Structures are given as structure tokens and as C-alpha cells.
Amino acid sequence: MRNISQFLSSELVKINLQSKDKKSAIKELSGLFETKQIIKDKNQYIADVLKREEEVSTELDNGVAIPHAKSAAVIKPAVAIGISRNGIDFSGEGRLSYVIFLIAIPQNANDTHISILSNLTSHLLETDCIQKIKGAKTEQEVVDIFSKEIEEEHQTRKGGRFLIGVTGCTVGVAHTYLAQKALEKAANEIGVTIKVETNGSIGIENSPTKEEIEHAEGIIIASDRETDMERFAGKRVINTSAKKGIDEPKELIMQILDKKAPIYKHNQKKTVTHFEESDTESQHKSLYKVLMSGVSYMIPFVVIGGLLIAISLAIGGEPTPNGLVIPEGSFWNKISAVGSTGFTLMIPILAGYIASAIGDRAALAPGMIGGWIANNGSFYNSTAGTGFIGAIIAGLLVGYFVKWLKHFKYPEAIQPLVPIMLIPITASLFIAFIFIFIIGMPISSLMTALNAMLQRLSTGSLIILGIVVGLMQGFDMGGPFGKVAFMFSVGLIAEGQPQFMGAQACAIPVAPLGMALATFLDRKHRLFQSEETANGKAALAMGLVGISEGAIPFAASDPFTVIPANMIGSAVSCTMGFLFGITDTVAHGGPIVLLLGAVNKPLIGLLCMMAGASVTALICLTLKKYKYSKVEKSYN
Q: Where in this chain does the record put each PTS EIIC type-2 domain (predicted)?
């Protein structure tokens, strides 16, 4: 992996910054880049760095700030270091940063960006290193401090004892390299040599050779990601989490040196030591990774489908008694059809890649087939499919079924056909049977019962009706529960009762708008992954035109947090719609129907939608903070 000394020189160090504020400090250090011809447009680079700072402050808790940006104004990657004797407030919250690392990254240098930041962050967490830099008297002394740190990090220790480490975390950035640094530092103190392979977001780096594996006394796997274990057969192996690698590196190393770690045999179950997490915690993390695998592949389909339909409705849609309709044969009708294709495929894609994450490639096709069947109620005589919830069920069932099938020993003559024919066909028939003959009938009966329930409630309390319709709408975001409520409201428009559609129109956009608002409020990006934050912008666009499916990726990746938040927010919005007497003569929802003149009280309708979205966002953030608070404390 590239280290920071390759991008740093004494000409890029300033030990007495004159700047008093963040913008001036960035400008002052950018001048060093300009002098060394690191950047070609100083103003553009500064603008890009400040834009990055607006997203979330790069100030760390130990008196350090690392402003950075990928910019078209950068010619080659570099790092400038500035030392402020009085401190500069980078966060805007009164905390002072005394050491400023300004990082210049070319627009297309993804791997370089992550390498520099990861390597730099690992050094910044060393208190001694920062204190040495703050006390440096000359620019060259700062460079020498880093050079010495890196030399000590990679030098070969005497004694001849050699270990191998493997680190990786779910996201693949910070904790991957923190675990690497912790293991290397502990090995240095004990007096042994260790080579650590990192499985980060830019891929696998620093992999050991076959000869190094043979020479190693043992292997320490401190990773939350899947690892190629076959190469370690016959070696002493500890298999634990990245967190243990950060917190207990010396204990892990001594476990190997004292020959207390078990010998790994290929095809055995995961190596277990007293450093392992509990089965419950391990299973929870494994399930999360499986769901995120499916969600990451599904997101592009949601974005493509949602945004194309949203644009088509906004520009080419016309209000009719049957809803917001794009005229047949028009240009925007064709664009909408392309978007509908994306929405049609997103559920099978979700199911397929969840199954694949569990059962590998052989599970992909039956998982997609299961997702298609789950989302198409015609297979089991239901008016609506099971939506993304059915896709998750199908993916998990297929994945574990395929994993079970792979344990059998098949005759050598048919082994080549097992992964491409026998397992996919068997798994496809298995999931089809499950949905058509076991799950299908109860689903069909449930849809009928829900419709009958709404019929009975329609003559009773508006508050109870609003809560029920809102909960149904928020539960599956365009899935079978929401569709039952929607078709019930559409049917009442023809009977001259548009207030039901009016209330539901307020609830329809709550889930995507609420998730968009939640990602925006998560300014430090601690609760949502970067991919989810980007998807929040797409969810906002979908919510504005009443496409509730924009929230599905969030619900699929964290259902026990997002779904309750969506349900409560939608119930609030729908109940308010009933109480305020909102009516809607168009079978559609979201802010777009307010602009079409189909709603009798547009401003109040907008207030109902905003209230529900705010409730959803706040509940989601509260639940996520509660859920991750213990994890964050354990890392701090």
C-alpha cells in the first residue's frame, strides 16, 4: 500500500501557520501546492475542499484536521502539513485543531485517495506521533518524523518468529487499517515480525506469498469480511473480529506464539477461540452483510426506475379520474416504461444477491426466480405480491437451501453439473413450491381480510382509520399492504369519497422523504453508509412525485429500524389528512398532486406530508443511534 512519505516533502510543510480560520488555513496551505505545481487551479481546488468541508467537518478529536478533496484542479496527489500554534476551529463547535493535513487528490485517483487517508489516519491515532509533529522546530523534522514511523512499521524484527495477519471490516476503510496498525504495533513490542493483509474497500493488499504462509507460525484473522481460508490449511489460526484486532492485538499474538490456537483444517467450520464474539452477535453481523449485499445490487435499479418514472410523471403526466397518467404512445410514456423495467427487476435482484451472498453463485439464479415469484401474486392467486419483504424471505430461503445442498458428496461423474444444473434447478423448484403452495394461500387470504377490514373501518373513527391506512402504507412502501389500502382509496374516488385518497396521498411520500431527511440530518455520516447517503438524494426526488419505493433500499438493509419509523410517520401523516379533511381526486400521492390542483387544501396537505416525514426521520435516527451507540463506544 502506498504510504504518506511518497507524497510529502519539506517544501509542503509549514510549521507556523498564520491563518486564524479554516478557509484561510486551507488557502495558505494550498499556496504550497501551487508553488510545487501540485495543482493547476488554486481557486478551484480550494472551492472543492470547502465543499467537502460543508458535507461534514474533517476535524478529529485529537487536535488534528484532515481537509481533503478529489479535484480536477489537482495534477498529482500530495499532502501538505501545517502547524498552528494557537489552533484553528475546523468544526465550528469551538474545538481547536493544531495540526492540519491538507490532501490533494486527482479526480480519478480513487485508490490513492483511500490509501493516503487510511495510512494517514492510522498514524494520526498515535498520540506520540502527533505530539512530536506539534513540537517540531523545522519543516524537515516533520518529514523525518513520518519517515521514521514508517521505517519502524516495516522493518524486520530480530528473532526470526513470523506471523501473518488478515484484517477487514464491513465498510473496508477505517477499522481495516486500525486493526492492521494495532497488530503491527503489538508485534513490534513483542519482538516478532508480522505481515498483515488488508481487505479494504480498494481490494486486497499486501497478501502473503505461499512461502510466507509456510514460514509463518500462525495466522491471525481479525476481519468482519469473508476470507480465503483454504490457503491457511494446516496452520494455527485465530479467526475473530476486526474489533478484537484493535482492542486485543497482544493477546491474539501470544495465543499463536504459545501454540494455543487450533490447527485449521479446510472445510471445517469457522475456527473458534475464546476471542470469538457470541453466536448471536456473529449471526446478526452475518445477516446484516447478507442483506447489504442484496441492497447494494438493488440500489441502481431503484434509482433508475424511480427517477425515470418521476421525471416522466412530472413532465408528461396528466391528471385523470383514474390517476396521474402518461398518455399512451407519448415520448414520456416510453421513458416511464424503461423506469418500470427497473422497478420490475429490483425485487428479483434483491432476492438473487441475498441468496448469492449465502450460497455463492449457484444460488443466484434460483434466488432471482424466487424474488420474481414472490413479487408476482398471480403465481399464488393473490391480487398483490409480497414486495421486498417477500424478496428477503426468498433470498434467505434459497441461500441456506443451496448451502445445505452443497454439503452432499455427489458422484464424480455428475460433479461438473452440480453447480450449473442440479443445484439451480432443485433450488428453483424448492422456492417455487414454498411460495405457490405454502406461503401463497395465506397471503391471498390476508389481502382479502385486509380489504374487508378497511371496509368495516371506513364507517368508524377517522383517527383509527388514519392510523391503520398509514401503518399499511408505511409497512412495505408500495408492496401488498400499501397496494390494498391504495386500491381501496381509489375505489372510493369513483363513489364520490375522495377524502380517503386525500389522506393516503399525504402518507405515500412519507417513507422516501423521511429517509432523505434522515440522511441529510446525519451530517457526520455515522449512521448511514456513503452509498445510503447518496441514495437519500434519489429518495427525495421519488418522494416528491409520490414514489414510495424510494425508501425500499433503506428498509431492506435495516428493516427493524426503518420499517417502524416509516409506519409511525405514515400513520401520523395519514391521520392528519383525515382530521384536516384533505381530499384528492387523482389516484396518486406526494407533493406533485398538490401542484396538479387535485387536492382541496394544498398547503395543509404539504404540512401533513412534512410532519410525517419529520417523524419518520427523527424516529429512524433515534433508533439507529440507540442501536449503534454500544458499538461506537467499544471502538472509542
A: 287-623
C-alpha cell at 18: 498564520
Whether 453 is covered by a domain: the verdict is no
Active site residue 68: yes
Residues 283 and 174 in one domain: no
Residue 78 pairs with which residues in a beta bridge? 104
Q: Report yes or no: 328 and 320 within 8 Å, Cβ to Cβ.
A: no
What pLDDT is recorded for position 134?
Answer: 83
**How far apart, in whole angstroms, are the C-alpha atoms of residue 83 and residue 334?**
59
Q: Among the options 113, 123, 129, 169, which is catalytic?
A: 169
Q: Are 608 and 583 in contact (CB under 8 A)?
A: no
Whether 517 and 613 map to the same domain: the answer is yes
The residues with which 333 forms a beta bridge, in sequence order, are none
Residue 478: φ, ψ to 5°: 90, 0
DSSP string, 172-223: SSHHHHHHHHHHHHHHHHHT-EEEEEEEETTEEESPPPHHHHHH-SEEEEEE
pLDDT of residue 271: 39
Angle (CA) 560 300 538, round 5°: 75
Helices (H) and strands (E) in the chain, counts: 24, 12
pLDDT score for 130: 78
Instruction: Give pLDDT < 70 ranges for the chain.
Output: 1-6, 61, 109-128, 147, 149-160, 169-174, 200-203, 226, 266-286, 288-289, 320-324, 383-384, 494, 524-525, 529-531, 628-636
Q: How far apart are the first and last CA of the chain?
A: 26
Regarding whether 610 and 573 lie in a shared domain, the answer is yes
Please tell me what DSSP assigns to residue 59.
B
Number of separate domains in the chain: 4
**Interval 580-617: pLDDT, tens:** 999 988 778 889 888 877 789 999 999 999 999 999 99
Same domain, 504 and 616: yes
What CA–CA distance (Å, rounded) separates 137 from 53?
A: 29
Give per-residue pLDDT as tens, 175-192.
Answer: 777 888 889 989 888 888
β-partners of residue 71 are: 106
Instruction: Please say if 175 is a catalytic residue.
Output: no
Q: Is 565:619 a contact under the CB 8 Å cutoff?
A: yes
Q: Which residues contact 397 (CB under 8 A, 6 or more apart)?
A: 370, 430, 431, 434
What does residue 541 show for φ and ψ, rounded to 5 degrees? Answer: -60, -40
**Whether 407 and 512 share a structural domain:** no
Both 258 and 283 in a single domain? Answer: no
Give the whole-angstrom CA distance, residue 363 versus residue 378: 24
Distance CA 237, CA 233 (A): 9
Gyration radius from the chain CA atoms: 28
Structural domain containing residue 358: 278-414
Contacts of 367 (CB under 8 A, 6+ apart): 348, 351, 352, 353, 354, 355, 356, 359, 394, 395, 398, 399, 427, 431
What local confidence, expressed as pLDDT, does residue 610 receive?
96
Q: Is residue 285 domain-shared with residue 359, that is, in the same domain? A: yes
Which DSSP state fits 236? Answer: E
Boundary (domain end) residue, out of 277, 310, 343: 277
pLDDT reported for residue 286: 63
Of 68, 113, 123, 588, catalytic: 68
